[in-house]
Design goal:
The protein is built from three helices and twelve strands. By secondary structure, it is α/β, with parallel strands linked by helices. The protein has a single domain, classed as Glucose Oxidase, domain 1. Keywords: Lyase.
Length: 137
């Protein structure tokens, strides 16, 4: 089955890969290890899971303005997600996507966290604000 979500491109670009979905917001400052691209927030549902090379689908950012600096570090260290798709647009999530320099889409016509599942094949066309999901469900 193919599902198409339409939204707003935040950082232009095109990427295709496997989805990693978080139902919880992600803390950049102290919530991720930029050296490995792993979520290290102890009570997070994805604790210990690496987002490097995945399309990271999540509700949005939480925590301080340091969120973007930690995600920028993932770009510099080669551990960044392939693309970002987030439900709630905030200055933290938008700036984080910009400094990470990965295609990013938000403000979609369907909740991406409810629609996309970890392991789905996702194409992010942030030029047009379109996220295409290929799933076996």
């Amino acid at each position: 089955m193919i599902i198409e979500l339409r939204g707003r491109g935040i950082v232009p670009g095109h990427a295709e890969g496997e989805a990693l979905v978080s139902h919880e917001t992600i803390s950049g400052w102290g919530g991720i290890d930029p050296a490995t691209g792993t979520i290290i927030e102890r009570r997070h549902e994805l604790y210990g899971v690496c987002f490097t090379g995945k399309v990271l689908v999540f509700p949005g950012a939480k925590g301080s303005s340091g969120w973007s600096a930690f995600f920028q570090s993932t770009r510099l260290l080669g551990t960044a997600p392939l693309a970002m798709v987030f439900s709630t647009l905030s200055t933290k999530s938008a700036l984080g996507a910009v400094v990470t320099r990965v295609p990013a889409v938000s403000q979609l016509d369907q909740d991406p966290v409810a629609t996309i599942h970890t392991g789905d094949r996702v194409t992010v066309d942030a030029y047009r604000g379109i996220v295409t999901v290929t799933t076996d469900r």
